[in-house]
Specification:
seven-stranded mixed sheet; 6 helices; alpha/beta; single chain
Length: 166
Amino acid sequence: MKQLLDTVWQRRGVSWIWDDDALNKIARPSEVLSLRQMLRFEGQWPDDLPSNNGSTMIVAGLDACLDLMSPEEADAWLGNELKHAILSFQDAYQGDAALVFWLPAGQRRIHIQAASDAVVWRCGAPNSDQQIDFGRLLWGEAREYPQEILLAAAAKAAGLFPLRIT
């Protein structure tokens, strides 16, 4: 998987981050929206976004939402509802804003299969033996997507960044 040592993810595209330092670079805790708040904006996105000088929307709660669903329900919801909201966000801002999902346990829950670069989400209890095909559902397994976000050279990944979801 390609690595990104650049701040473009803070201003454009869609990212999934799990590193505290990455979150602190772009938002104060009071600027983080719930998943429910983000979904309510669909079709009526605000002119000024709450974080990073008006260029970024940080969303928390995706992990908890997925944990409340069965893997089958989560699979359908990600591929339909969430993907539709992400596409709406991208269209509204024409690629000039960032949508960042804060996943505090993402480093343990998101797994990248080295041989194929496929990205999967490890389900929580009671379905912890199952996975959701995150990459296929959200960015259609395009191998250019996503890139691992690095905050410094040789650092651990802080998140994943696809510039655009299609």
